[in-house]
Specification:
Blueprint (H helix, E strand, L loop, with lengths): L21 H14 L4 E5 L2 E5 L10 E4 L8 H14 L5 E4 L5 H9 L3 E12 L17 H12 L6 H10 L3 E9 L3 E11 L2 E9 L8 H15 L4 E7 L3 H10 L2 E10 L4
Parallel strand pairs: 8-9
Antiparallel strand pairs: 1-2, 2-3, 4-10, 5-9, 5-10, 6-7, 7-8
Helix pairs in contact: 4-5
InterPro entries: Acyl_CoA_acyltransferase (IPR016181), Bact_Acetyltransf (IPR050832), GNAT_dom (IPR000182), Rv0428c-like_C (IPR056935)
Pfam families: Rv0428c_C
Protein name: GNAT family N-acetyltransferase
Length: 270
């Protein structure tokens, strides 16, 4: 039997075939945009065009259609978006969630646009998630310290430091920057938790490659969500690529369930 996904975000997720509830998708998309803010946001109808010169994140540099009924003049609007991306020296990327018009998906298919990085958006009621074990960690207050730790843990290039710091400094809702560190080897896991009204979004979740399978990821998630729960958050949510099977299993084990999926599209050859 098909479901509407997590029909009420305070209800436990279910395992049947997911048919997304578009009202819930819209809410999660909105809190997601606030939690990971782009430097430039423009609209072409209901297509949100997000561009950020200082950081290459696809979520910060993509076209995000937000109304399934907004499908007029697709070819003209795609070309118009391409010119905006060219001005930022970015490849044109569409982020296709359940809010994207089917006609746009058909247009991209017909022109051979490649689909990649399918991502699952997961959610769960905080009081039903398994978050009460592990050590307590307080969020760090120094953005620079967190950025250094995140770059190390993710194995990213140091050139991204300024861009990541700019994104984190632009977040308007309350946010907790969590770092698990080892006295000898340095940072081992990081998480960004953004508390937005009754929602708590988890971002930048990572464990250093040589420190995995030791429970650090689970510990930093639990600490972040206990912090959010203390501040009044009732629902936790996160995003994970379908290819990251270990992370998907971890989140399911904590009690998260799938709400919807999205993927990115780029022109052939990009």
């Amino acid at each position: 039997m098909a479901t509407t996904g997590v029909d009420n975000l305070s209800e436990p997720p279910r395992a049947e075939l997911i048919v997304p509830n578009l009202a819930i998708v819209r809410r999660l998309e909105a809190v997601g945009f606030r939690a990971w803010p782009a430097a430039s946001i423009q609209y072409d109808g209901s297509w949100q065009i997000r561009l950020t010169a200082g950081h290459p994140s696809k979520r910060l540099n993509s076209v995000n259609p937000l109304d399934p009924s907004d499908h007029g003049d697709i070819e003209i609007r795609v070309e118009r978006a391409a010119r905006r991306f060219d001005a930022y020296d970015r490849p044109l990327v569409f982020r296709q969630s359940p809010l994207a018009p089917p006609q746009l998906e058909a247009f991209l298919d017909a022109h051979g646009w490649r689909r990649f990085d399918e991502t699952i958006v997961m959610a769960g009621a905080i009081d039903r998630l398994d978050i009460d074990g592990g050590m307590d960690y307080l969020p760090v207050r120094d953005i620079g310290r967190y950025v250094d730790a995140a770059i190390t843990v993710h194995g990213r290039d140091q050139s991204l430091k300024a861009g990541l710091a700019e994104v984190l400094s632009s977040i308007r809702p309350s946010s907790g920057l969590f770092v698990i560190e080892d006295d000898k080897t340095g940072p081992t896991a990081t998480a960004l938790c953004v508390h937005d009204n009754d929602m708590a979004g988890l971002f930048e979740l990572a464990t250093r490659a040589d420190a995995r399978r030791a429970g650090h990821g689970r510990d930093v998630i639990r600490a972040a969500l206990r912090w959010a729960r203390h501040r009044g958050a009732e629902t936790a949510w996160l995003q994970v690529e379908t290819a990251n099977t270990a992370a998907v299993a971890l989140y399911k084990g904590l009690g998260f369930g799938e709400v919807y999926r999205y993927a990115y599209r780029v022109k052939p050859g990009q």
